[in-house]
Amino acid sequence: MSVTTEDVRRIARLARIAEPTERLEALTQELNGILTWIEQLDEVDTDGVEPMTTPVKFPLPQREDKITDGGIRDDVLANAPKSEEGFFVVPKSVE
Questions:
Q1: Is residue 49 part of a domain?
Q2: The total number of structural domains that make up the chain
Q3: Which whole number is the average pLDDT over 48-75?
Q4: Per the domain annotation, does 54 fall within a domain?
């Protein structure tokens, strides 16, 4: 897969990046180089390789799944500028 100068111009416009016309050719070559490198990764045989999230294997910390800080609705609402029937009152944002 390769990109053209028109593709780079369109991508820059979509990303709201103002690139001078003389820089587009260099960007096109850079992007094509990156895409060539990514295509080389497709050639790597990954059969039997277990996916990993980190190169260092360690157990994730676990905690008991329990509800905490419940039943303090009135304490929380005491910080609100305005509340009504146990809920925060905020200005209407959608007509």
A1: no
A2: 1
A3: 83
A4: no
The set of residues, in sequence order, having a beta carbon less than 8 Å from that of 72 and lying 6+ positions away, is none
Nearest to 77 by CA among 67, 85, 65: 85
9 falls within a domain = yes
Quote the CA–CA distance of 81 and 90 in Å, as a whole number. 9
DSSP secondary structure letter of residue 59: P
In the chain, the amino acid numbered 34 is I
Query: Is residue 32 in some structural domain?
Result: yes
48: Cβ contacts below 8 Å, ≥ 6 apart: none
Cα 29 to Cα 1, 8, 10, distances in angstroms: 13, 10, 15
pLDDT digits (tens, 9 = 90+) for 9-33: 999 999 999 999 999 999 999 999 9
